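Example 3.2
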Amino acid sequence: MAFIDEHVGRGRPLFAVRPGALYSVTEIGVLSRFDAKTGDVTDKTRIDPAVTAFTSSPWACNGKVYFLSEEGQTFVVAAGDRLVLRTEHRLYSIRRSTPPPKS
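Structure, written as tokens:
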């Protein structure tokens, strides 16, 4: 895997990695799925226009990718070719870092 996403950088969330794919989120909640070999964007969508602050890096576990907003909302997307929102959870507190996934 060798490509550059000019929109990812200092102060921005990093990628979640799954076999064959990379997942990212912008600070305003735009999700992108990249092909891990080519770097091509294979899907892109906005989570929720009302949610405007993402600084945590997404993480992947058990076939899902998790995106945590600063407002404490966790959005769960199925890890696959399309970005399909599966569920949403509210933590009711401000979050600015990525929680460590439990193995």
